From TrEMBL:
Native organism: Rhodinocichla rosea
Pfam families membership: Ion_trans
Species classification: Eukaryota, Metazoa, Chordata, Craniata, Vertebrata
Gene expressing this chain: Tpcn2_1
GO term, biological process aspect, one: calcium-mediated signaling
InterPro entries hit by this protein: Ion_trans_dom (IPR005821), TPC2 (IPR028798), Volt_channel_dom_sf (IPR027359)
Name of the molecule in the record: Two pore channel protein 2
Amino acid sequence: GAGADNDLYINQAIVFIEDAIQYRSINHRVDSKSLWLYRWYYSRTCQWILSLTITVILALAFIEEPSSLTITSDVRYRLPAWNPPCGLTESVELLCFLVFMADVSVKSYLIGWKEFWKNKWLMAYILTLIVSFADWIVSLSFFCKESVRIRRILRPFFLLQNSSMMKKTLKSINSTLPEMASVLLLLAVHLSLFTMFAMLLFARTKDNQQDKEWVVYFRNLPDSLTSLLVLLTTANNPDVMIPAYSKNRAYSIFFILFTVLGNLFLMNLLTAIIYNQFRGYLLKSVQSSLFRRRLGIRAAFEVLSSLKETPASAQQSCVGVGALLQVLQKAEMDSRCKQAIMRSLKMCSCDQLSAAQFQKLFEELDKDAIKQHPPSPEYQSHFMQKVQFAFGHPYFGYLGNVVALANIISICVVLVMDADKQPSERDDFFLGAINCFFILYYLLEMLLKILAMGLKRYLSYPSNRFDGLLTVILLILEIATFAVYGFPHPGWRPEFMGLLSLWDMVRLVNMLIVFRFLRIIPNMKFMALVVTTLLDLVKNLRAFAGILVVVFYAFAITGIMLFKGAVVPLGNTRKKNVISWCSVQAGLIYCLLYVLSVHLICRWAKIYFVAWWLISSVIWVNLFIALLLENFIHKWDRRCQRESLSDIEYQRTVELMFRDVLEEPTEEELMEKLHQHPHLHLCR
């Protein structure tokens, strides 16, 4: 009946608005049961379970054989790692696979089978599950003794496919590969030519004493190519040129030319090309997100305009205010936006909303999240008003910064003076007295600020919360110090207990006061611009961080399979001398590199390290630089458009950074897209 249809339209509008809020696609089933399943799937509980499952299956590598998850990484001292019994981690994997199967089944059903066959990510999802489950069966068949587990390399895919932003990022990276390949080819030519020159310059001679360059670095083609490739990363600079330079200073010209052409020109050219190809990535992504939001809002309007209560005499589609209020009460959205939209509806004198009015109401979603600090208390006493003015003034905060600087300097001076003294020779009276003074000042400063600003306003500032927490911690530790060691006096030397004595903890916590100086950043426009750029990148680059985790995880698992047993404890007599020499002469890191480079039988292992360097250092670092530049340039161009307000904090997201340069989709584009919806059939 009409009531059932109205309920369906209301539920459809609720889901479409939630899709718009989260920038999700609306191309899914819209019948009653599917809408219930859709909202359940995207609920916090369900998504939390899915995220937890992905985390668990990725974390299994830390305890699976041949994991070396021990307290120390030194192969000489670490105890044998815990080896879980066969079937334990496999049981956890099976539970994760069941969750993923349910996930892909729900996704496939919600978008419909026709759309499913067009979705390459879902097809790859199913293929990954099939291969992983088959490999899981093989593991059980061999009683967990197989040396290669393919499914471990495939695990990062579960993280990748669960994020739409990561998929967009990967697609954008893929579009830059042809241009990057041209520079990498030029880099390969550069390496090849200089390798040939090096083999000619440092060829073997009759004098073995003068052939150190040939023996160590340029003995053959693979060694020569590897030496110059490592020089391109500057990891062996200047070691690679020392033997030749000792023989003849003119040989340094070869290495200087190689470094200038490779590092200064070609590597920076690669950065420029990646930036040029990647510069519009954020803007295009946000433009697409804006279209999804407008499309979701328009879809909600269209289904609400189909309600039976809508006046039939209306010449154009419209939505009743009551129907919209009913949708807003049930939709999951930010309380700030919901209250703002409801206030706008109450101020509206009309009972029906046009498409333009409906869309304008939801522009509240596009606005900055504003945090306004509570007002200060109003004192009636003239004396209290003066106290409030004095201790609420910014200059009082500057005084606190000066005192904190003095605290840091005093601690540094005492630490430098006592650096070479034995614990029994130190007299901590001076530092103990200074600590008492500074902690009392911090306590007094906190109380006076609370008096001037009020507790709610004081706590509304993150810097004040940090200072207050730090002051309380210092006060507790100081009281505990007095209770254990007594008050400071000449010759006062608190005993050293455990890793850190209570007295050392007080000195370390004092060092945290240096962060008080971060409060001056908003007062320095250029520094504030740089810091906000970095903070925006940290907050909004979860997709890049996720792909970085995928790359690290895949290479780590591959490295475990390739180099298992390459570094062994001292009990192995064949490599005992090598590891002993490395640990004494070069440290454990160089020991690892030495063993891998000298004792690995397969020289093809170098391909692994070259691929790792190209992906992690060359490509990924340059992509990050491209995003950093685009974000900074955009903020630099807009730096004068908004005046800073002391009582208002703008909490910006990546979607809001480019809001003023985005193009609004036209009504024709929205309606054309809605008519292409595979499951929604509009009347007009």
